Amino acid sequence: MQLRFAVTLEDGTVAESNFTDSEPLEIHVGDGTFPEALELCLLGLREGQRDTRRLYPEQAWGLHDPGNRQQIALRDFPPDIAPETGQIIEFELPDGDEVLGTLIGVTGDYAEVDFNHPLAGHTIEFEVEIVSVAPPQ
Question: pLDDT tens across 52-72, in order?
């Protein structure tokens, strides 16, 4: 499936959009590109259709969990990263998986990192236009 989409926050800020890009996004439902609730918004839509849905945090990227904030020693950051508030940094987990964290602040020798998805806790508007649909290969 190829589509154009926009995710807009409750204050009108466009968090992500490819409506102005030259190429639509190609996804396969179930591939993890979107949370399940966003994928459910796609079901039944045909080529050329456009739809907009309002999704609450628990339907989209989840509620913000304060337990997902951690203090990380600055010495544990890669040497090529100078931690700054607001940075989104990719961290490698012990099992080799990667996770994104948003740097909340630096105090002394530690940085506070929020490992919630940046859109967690937000009610969003999900707008989508289906460019093409193809059966799974």
Answer: 999 999 999 999 999 999 999
- 2-62+122-132 CATH: 3.10.50.40
Amino acid sitting at position 68: N
DSSP 24: P
> Cβ atoms within 10 A of the Cβ of 63, count?
11
Q: pLDDT tens digits for 18-37?
A: 998 778 999 888 888 888 88
**What predicted TM-score, i.e. pTM, was given to this entire model?**
0.77
Per CATH, is 66-114 categorized as 2.40.10.330?
A: yes
**Which residue shows structure tokens 């964290």?**
101
Is 37:58 a contact under the CB 8 Å cutoff? no
